[in-house]
């Protein structure tokens, strides 16, 4: 059984640590992401009107990055980023040679699969109330983690036919996106 990508992102970030400076996004995430289960009844082949809108309004990872400008400042786009009507996967990482004290990364993933509130509750995600998302038939959730020397937040928004995951982490807690900020970025991408 595969896990929700927000947990996969947390696992990758927390276990990879300093090794991320030596690895590309393709090396560190492709195998894990391909093994991740969203746990949805929504078909991956179904076209999502939200993904179509995102691809029209934010046609590149650079455009997606503009919504996260403060958090990606100084980071390098990872190769293989994609923005399409089927999927968004944009990653920014610390450049080669970055000192471990500056290690940080940002990932934005949007897919047509979604999870249910019950699944989110079982996995320990914290539901973030938001009236606009709830009015659209969805819910927002977050998983903030603070450990010695590392701060990390994974925020998700689940709507019918769209799941947005925004993961921001690093050694500097001031550069980590808070849950409300992650929800605001997701809403901007979704046009809510």
Automatic annotation (TrEMBL):
Asked if Signal is a keyword of the record, the answer is yes
Key word Signal present in the record?
yes
Q: Which UniProt keywords apply?
A: Signal
Give the domain of life: Bacteria
Identify the stretch annotated as signal peptide in this record: 1-21
State the name under which the record lists this protein. DUF3558 domain-containing protein
Task: Tell me the organism.
Answer: Rhodococcus rhodochrous
